[in-house]
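User: Modeling request: complex.
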Amino acid sequence: MRLAFILSEIGSGLRRNLSMVVSVILVTFVSLTFVGAAGMLQMQINQMKGYWYDKVQVAIFLCSEGSTAAGCAGGPVTSEQQESLNTLLESPAVAQYINDFQFESKEEAYKHFKDQFSNSPIVDSVTPDQLPASFRINMKDPQKYEIISETFSSQPGVETVIDQRQLLERLFSVMNGASLVAVSIAGVMIVCAILLIATTIRLSAFSRRRETGIMRLVGASKTVIQLPFILEGVIAAVIGAALASATLWAVSHFFLGEFMSRQYPDTAFISSGQTLILAPALLILGASLAGISSLLTLRRYLRV
Amino acid sequence: MPCRVLRAMIRFENVTKVYDQTTRPALDSVNLEIDRGEFAFLVGASGSGKSTFLRLVLKEDRATSGAVYVAGQNVAKISSWRVPRLRRGIGVVFQDFRLLPQKNVFANVAFAMQVIGKSRSVIRDTVPEVLKTVGLEGKEHRMPHELSGGEQQRVAIARAVVNRPGILLADEPTGNLDPTTSMGIMGVLDKINQNGTTVVMATHDDDIVNEMRKRVVELRNGVVIRDEAKALYTSMIPVVGQSRRLKDASGRENPETGVPGDGREGEAQR
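Assistant: Request completed. Predicted assembly structure:
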């Protein structure tokens, strides 16, 4: 009975305040879309970092079938060449610059590749043979990359030495900047959303002050009096959050999944499924924003 | 002493209420007891403290000093989450009816039961019964604007008593009504009183008070200046030098003969 009563109160509140409710939905929608966009950018950065990014700085790729680099004239790397490279890495002259290093075989390379490009069709056309084996080096001082490069580039069996960080770092700084902008806009919009929800609840409480006055007099509990107002705000905010989640999903599915991944097949993009991980977070964020701001408003404007 | 407290439905012990430090208190050291089942009029000019008295009973305000007991409970000691339970034991009726305009008669009365979680079947059984008590049989589906003032007030009374409160507070319930209609309302209040509900009614309406011959508590500037059983609106004491002599009278009367004694006497004789 009480539940049915509260639900009917919510319904009448939403109907009476329709234009305000729509504006709450839109403002939470926009603000949470920006929050989600920032989240997506960070997820994309993680996706592009792949398996090695946080662990090593420099990769020495070894010759494989069909390598065209000058150092690979002798065909794929032999186990003797690989052994001597390993010895060189362990020699004091080189070892003083590095923390440690790991060898990544073709099979391991294939496994990591599959993980990183799991959302991309490219994964089906790649075999372990096409991927080079490599030494992955964790530098004591990443700035000393040149030393490693000079020492190893000319070694037999080495295709190329790459400082992967340097390649990606510039891109990541752009993306981090973009997520910072998104977060700032989201912050402003969230403040808007909170103020708008507070105003809406205030209006709603004012337009129903007769009812709440009578409820108070006949001894309705605080919950029965306040819950319809709080849920009004929460429902509007949750609708906004759901719209934001749907928008983010659409962006990742249609823009990243269909368009961008075709334009840049060698880049790993996040999948639309991964974006949905953001949805519960956005829903909870929206609901708690609305809940807290309406609770605080009611404490001031609705005597119980 | 505890037995006294329990018998008294409403008991004010030396209650003072100050809204604003710079002005005189709204209530000034009021001692008063209203017993279970009693019918009492609260009379006095505007600003004499009648509404403050009612607000203190409802715990809408806190007494600045002194203690207010309702049904034996010191309201100052009731925690805020239990205030609703206190208010369920008190029905309130106002001069301006305060009905919900978009709900019909039945829904207005049912509202008071819905919000405290009564089941639909209980509501279906109780509401027509209460409407019958207040004389509104067959008008369940009228809207408030289709009713006369007197009928609207009957709906408000029905709503106030539908949860069977022990106390009914009426703040000038006949203030907007003509004399004949007012007498009808008084009949309803009297009937509710005879069913065992304590009724406290604040009023300016001298005709009604004189007609009913119930206990009259008169307030002036926050002080009880008269408390008589089966009394009239105006005091029998001569007007000349009234205020000084009345203060003497109330000061003497309260501690010695005891206010509720008068009320009980009136009750017993009825």
